[in-house]
């Protein structure tokens, strides 16, 4: 049981964690801070948090669990602010989508208190950001990757694991570098591609007319292009070497399909598409029970 | 009211049209043909069609509405087969995703009977192909583009429009070339990109491990990479000049985002992502009532 949860960043991720922990009956009191006070007020009005804190350190003070849900580039600065307010027994976690930069920033900001920090990345999201779209089920059946290294405290890693499991997630551990390589491929690059694709249409003079005719395939393919810009700016920059490397690998695959098209090689194109479609048709998101996932 | 509907190609599209027309109380009897007899038998077992026809011309004979739902490259050959079986009063439609090639193939195959043909493209789809996933709601609130030209019969175009409206669709007319240019951008290219992206991961030695860690963003971005290979081979080949032209435009947009990443230009990257995310966040598929769309 968490006596007090301090949420820093009361958006979709932070708000959903608060709601989920409360629904699981695992928290007594929730204090929340957001850079824009109106956001934290809104979170309180929605019953996501019990009390608004004026600063990150005020949210941390007296909390036995502190959840950082801010764009990854802000991690270091926020941790430095709350360092001295952190209860010596407290556990502090983030929810950032990159981990090498977060681990480094936490080490620099927290010093020997880095033992209290457990880097976490829940693989969860929704079409709409913001606390208004937060819900207790966001992490249910979702994967959460923890990326502690030698400096982190095994007991707190275990506690982090158990908390994420309480809100319905499956937990996996990975080192921060492997994490960033993996998620450059399966998450960061597709976001970059979706942004670029949407941009290539929207910026055309006839863009509005084209968008008016787009259907369900387009809708799903571009859903992630609505991703929160500050969050994705930080993720893409923090992991830019891997992302650019993976973008190059994607271009090779695209070159190869384009070459089959240009040659009009129907048999080879069919063979390639069949392999891909069969693979994707048989793929299911881990933990997701229903075929629609 | 349609006395007899002949469906040629009892898959997701053809099967869903049959179910929808029946649900609307607009058809008495449905005869279906599929190249693989087992497919038509399955459609009958599911109650999608009433009777299995051994050939396209058998499905056409006695039908006052013939719906062709086959890969676009097969359009000409199938129409040539059923031409002489077509009742002089009948209306014949396709559901192909490219229209210039279909209009040309229909003119060549049907001769003066091309007046009986109305080229149609419903903008609808589902993650899973095949008659088992057919449902009466597939076309509800979806756009259907009709692309008749001077050779087609205005009365039949009107009848086609009214039939699609009966199954819940909105109908728009466009010339075949404009249609193919538009859908190269909003549909064919994203399919090519999704295929290439999935391929770039699945073909890696560590592909399976990566796919195991992918989450909901990946799931939605790659949904269309499960698209039926024969159907998409034909679409991409039929419209390859436009698709390749649009792929080049997409690469320019990607180049530009990659350049901002490589430079580490956080402000410019944020500005660009914010514009895109705001655009996509405010986009709604036409006809789709709910925000989740």
Give a short synopsis of this structure:
Chain A has 293 residues and is an alpha/beta fold. Chain A has helices spanning 12-23, 37-45, 56-60, 75-82, 100-110, 154-166, 176-202, 207-211, 216-222, 229-238, 240-263, 266-282, and strands at residues 2-8, 27-33, 51-52, 65-68, 91-94, 117-118, 120-122, 143-146, 170-173. In chain A, helix 1 links the parallel strand 1 and strand 2 (27-33).
Shape of chain A: globular
Order of helices and strands of chain A: EHEHEHEHEHEEEHEHHHHHH
Mean pLDDT of chain A: 95
Tally of contiguous helical segments of chain A: 12
CATH class of the largest domain in chain A: Alpha Beta
Count of discrete structural domains of chain A? 2
Structural class of chain A: alpha/beta
Task: Find the CATH superfamily of the largest domain in chain A.
Answer: NAD(P)-binding Rossmann-like Domain
Low-pLDDT stretches of chain A: 289-293
- Approximately what portion of the residues of chain A adopt beta-strand conformation? 5-15%
The CATH architecture assignment of the largest domain in chain A turns out to be 3-Layer(aba) Sandwich
Largest sheet of chain A: 6 strands, parallel
What oligomeric state best describes the polypeptide chains here?
A: homodimer
Largest interface: A-B, 92 and 92 residues
With strands numbered from the N-terminus, the spatial order across the biggest sheet of chain A is 3-2-1-4-5-6
Number of strands of chain A: 9
Considering DSSP H and I runs of 4 or more, what fraction of the residues of chain A is helical?
40-55%
End-to-end Cα distance of chain A: 32 Å
CATH topology tier name of the largest domain in chain A: Rossmann fold
